[in-house]
Write a structure and sequence with these properties.
By secondary structure, the protein is of the alpha/beta class. Helices cover 46% and strands 13% of the residues. It contains 17 helices and 11 strands. The radius of gyration is 20 Å and the shape is globular. The protein binds NADPH dihydro-nicotinamide-adenine-dinucleotide phosphate (NDP) and magnesium ion.
């Protein structure tokens, strides 16, 4: 197995699953961004032979801290190399930086356990092609998509003619039920507190704006080959029902479990069998209430923006995700307020002209163009 993004929230939880199932996998390579000491600790514990770091300037320091016998690779090319060289590749990198992992793993016919939704959404038209490589398989770690995968009884493609719609559940984030006026008072600390999940900073902010759910609508459409017109978002604050599939006969199949990402990670790694260990169990012997409500699209316009990007296709989802990455990073650096995040993404999308995506190079150029627009808007408004 290769675990790319090993030092993050999904990466660390994947390591927990491996510690539980020490005989199932050999971890041959890992990668991270800049946290070298943490990478070295993982490399030592699991006897990893190849390690990827993000920046060329960290190469020598990484060699030094990892010691002899461990090969160091660098940057996106390094990530791509590691993704080609393992049977199972976990993409736990955050953001568009995860692109080489997704493309290379699928091109090489590997099993890709996917957490990195941003690159998958941005590259959807290109991913569709490389998924046809013999042996290539995408298994979704994202809890909603893992739930749908289970409700679809293990099939990720083929149009699903007997499915009426996919119902993506959303916790609603920390600001569920807040008015627009109250949302104007949100601070960085408020937005970093998620009610039901503990995750990395970027996705935690995305969950507070519901952009995460918008990205997940695009992710579900690309993963399962279902048009976004057949994907609905349902707010479910308890985060126990992880998503549902409604069939044409009115039957709705749901997957339930406690909110713990180690369960979908273990599901992907164990498949086609289930590991005999429960990451928490729902207690049905005491009263349990599960509630569902529609999302407030006026207070959380990120969701309609994502649907609009899906309908435009081409590079529109890449622009949406790139602009959002820039806006979220600016918010985390206190350069903009919480209520600025989604309007900046919307303003960038207003500048998008339809582009058909033909190659990875074209996608990288589109990503850069959207980032420039977002950066300019933020600089202009300050
Ligand atoms: P974190 O920020 O916690 O971790 C991100 C990981 O990516 C870290 O290991 C980081 O390294 C690494 N990384 C960042 N930039 C680069 C780069 N240029 N090259 C190589 N590695 C890099 O994020 P999460 O674990 O929360 O999220 C990862 C992905 O999973 C995201 O796409 C997210 O949307 C998705 N996801 C996460 C969930 C969760 O519960 N956390 C749930 C569902 C999906 P370093 O530590 O050195 O910075
Ligand atoms: Mg999710």
């Amino acid at each position: 197995m290769a675990l790319l993004g090993a030092t993050g929230s999904i990466g660390r939880q994947t390591l927990d699953v491996l510690r539980r199932e020490p005989d199932s996998f050999e971890l041959v390579s890992i990668a991270g961004g800049t946290r070298l000491a943490e990478l070295a600790e993982v490399a030592r514990e699991f006897g990893v032979r190849r390690v990827g770091v993000a920046r060329p300037e960290d190469f020598l320091a990484a060699r030094e801290i990892l010691g002899d016998g461990v090969e160091v690779v660098v940057g996106g090319d390094g990530l791509g190399e590691l993704a080609r060289d393992a049977d199972v590749v976990v993409n736990a990198v955050v953001g568009f930086a995860g692109l080489p992992v997704t493309i290379n793993a699928l091109e090489a016919g590997r099993t890709l356990a996917l957490a990195n939704k941003e690159s998958f959404i941005a590259a959807a038209p290109l991913v569709a092609r490389v998924r046809d490589t013999p042996g290539a398989l995408v298994l979704p770690i994202d809890s909603e998509h893992c739930a749908i995968y289970q409700c679809l009884a293990d099939s990720t493609r083929s149009g699903h003619p007997d499915v009426r719609r996919l119902l993506l559940t959303a916790s609603g984030g920390p600001f569920r039920g807040w008015s627009r006026e109250r949302l104007a008072t949100v601070t960085r600390a408020d937005a970093l507190q998620h009610p039901t999940w503990s995750m990395g900073p970027k996705i935690t902010i995305d969950s507070s704006t519901l952009m995460n759910k918008g990205l997940e609508v695009l992710e579900a459409s690309a993963l399962f080959g279902v048009d976004v017109g057949r994907i609905n978002v349902v707010v479910h604050p308890q985060s126990v029902v992880h998503s549902m599939v409604e069939y044409v006969d009115g039957s709705v199949i749901a997957q339930l479990s406690l909110p713990d990402m180690r369960l979908p990670i273990a599901f992907c790694l164990g498949r086609p069998v289930r590991f005999d260990h429960a990451w928490g169990a729902i207690d049905f012997t005491t009263a349990l209430s599960l509630t569902f409500e529609p999302p407030d699209l006026a207070a959380f316009p990120a969701i309609p923006l994502a649907y609009a990007a899906a309908r435009r296709g081409g590079a529109a989802p890449a622009w949406l995700s790139a602009a959002n990455e820039v806006a979220v990073a600016a918010f985390l650096h206190d350069a903009i307020g919480w209520t600025d995040i989604v309007p900046i993404v919307a303003a960038v999308m207003d500048q998008y002209d339809d582009v058909h995506l033909e190659s990875v190079e074209a996608l990288v150029a589109q990503d850069a163009a959207a980032r420039r627009r977002a950066t300019d808007l933020i600089a202009r408004d300050r």
